[in-house]
Structure formats: C-alpha cells, structure tokens
Amino acid sequence: MNVTKYENQVEALTPKTLFTGQQLIWLPECESTNTEAQTLVVKNSATEGCTVITDKQTAGRGQRGNRWEAVAGENLTLSVVWFPSFLAINDQFQLSQAVALAVHDWAGSLLGPDPALRLKWPNDLFFGDQKLGGILIENTVSGAKIQSSIVGIGLNINQQNFGIPTATSFGRLTSRHYLLPPLAVGLLESLERRYLQLRADQRALLRSDYLRALYRYEEWHPYEVAGKRVLGRIVDIDEAGRLIVEMDGKVQRFGLQEIKFVYD
C-alpha cells in the first residue's frame, strides 16, 4: 500500500481489501478530500479504491451545498475513488445506498445492534435524532455510464462540542476516546464489502438492508413540504432514490429539496 503521511502509524493503515485503501494518501490539512481525490482522478493518478484522508478539512462540503464542520484531528474525514462503470447514470442511488449501508455496518461494529442507529435518507448516519456523520458522492459520467465516483465521508468520532444540537459523536455516546487509524481501516473494509455486493448486482439485498436501517421507516412523523407542516409516514424509496411518503391519505415522492424533516 502506498501511504503518503501518517504520523508514525503507517502500520495501522493496512486494510484487508482487494483495492479500497490500498493506495492511501494522508494529508495533515486540505480544503476538501473530495477535491483532492478529484484532482488525482483528472491526472490519472488514482487507482481503483484510492483513498484520501485528512486531519483537517478547511472547506469540506456536505449535501445541498452545506459546509461540513469538524474539529481537526478528532474525526474521520476521507474520500474514496471508485470506477463503477457497471452502473448506469440512472443507478446513482444504488451506489449511495451501498455506501450508506457500509457506514451503518461499520458504526454497528462500534455501537452494537442498537435500534437507535439509523440511516437518515438519503445517506446520513443518525443515532436517535442526532447526526453522527454524512456522505457526499460526486459522480462523473461518460455516455450512459458512471465513469468515476468520489465518495466523501465525514464521521464525528472524538469531538465533544458542536455548534448545533442535532449533532453528536461516537465519543459522546460511549464516553470513549478512539484511535482513528484502526477506525479508518475498518471503514475501508466495510466500504469494499458493500461495493462488491453492488458490483455483483445484489440489489435486492442492498435494498432490503437499507430499508431495515432507514430512519423513521414506517413511522408517523412531522415533515415540512412547500412551507407547510404535515404528518407523514415513509413507506419506501424508489429506484431514483426519491423518498416515498404517505401523507394526507395519498402516497407522494420527494427529491432532496422537496421535503424537510421536522424534529419536535
């Protein structure tokens, strides 16, 4: 494995994978691991599974253009490069689903099979009503296929204080302090397992596992739609990744910008 910087703990970064994390670049600081990974792709310097990890991300990006805030050296912030040319453009949510499940699997190895550990649509990691981590996938397409995917993941590990009440960390939940390198290794291994399932076209398995882990699935909760508060029940996810919600006596489909989760 090619490791470019990691504070005298190179031996800890040896994932048991076929390719994910075998080319590994650890940066003390960068604006965005997704940006760094994309630069490597453009330069044809990234192999399948190339991983960029940083201690400090100064301009991290989240879903919907939000910034990802994390205290330097206390959390996991990384991006993985894959080349899923087996996926059609319309199958982008399949990749998102597999990545989210991998993160959920990995989190379960730390917290156990706790029913509070859930995936909030489309791919945030939640414990109860608080966010543990997020995922941002940026795809490049060629023709009708996905050419490359930059899978950005941010996970709150040891950070104790947050600017918003809806965030938490593994350290806060367990009162433990975690060493980051072993966690990174476990995450890379988990990511590759779910990616290989996707590559083997095990879509029915991924779909059923995702619904089983889905936050608020088949429960009635408040949402905001078009500026109005409504009561709804998540009943499914369609092939395009839209949230299917029962509300006002009918079933409706929503994209990312069309429905907002409301917390009492």
Task: Describe the structure in your own words.
This protein is α+β, with helices and mostly antiparallel strands and 264 residues long. It contains 5 helices and 13 strands. The strands form 2 sheets. Strands 1-2-3-4-8-7-6-5 form an 8-stranded mixed sheet, with helices on both faces. A hairpin with a 2-residue loop joins strand 7 (130-142) and strand 8. The longest helix is centred in the middle third of the chain and has 20 residues, at 92-111. Residues 1-10 have low confidence and may be disordered.
Strand content: 25-35%
Shape annotation = globular
What is the subunit organization of this protein?
single chain
Q: Low-confidence parts lasting 5 or more residues at pLDDT below 50?
A: 1-10
Give helix and strand order, one letter per element, not per position: EEHEEHEEEEHHHEEEEE
Q: What structural category arises from helix and sheet content?
A: alpha+beta
Helix content: 25-40%
Average pLDDT: 92
Query: How can the largest sheet be summarized?
Result: 8 strands, mixed
Q: Strand order, biggest sheet?
A: 1-2-3-4-8-7-6-5
What distance separates the N and C termini?
48 Å
| Number of E strands | 13
Q: If you compute it from the alpha carbons, what radius of gyration comes out, rounded to the nearest whole angstrom?
A: 18 Å
**Total helical segments:** 5
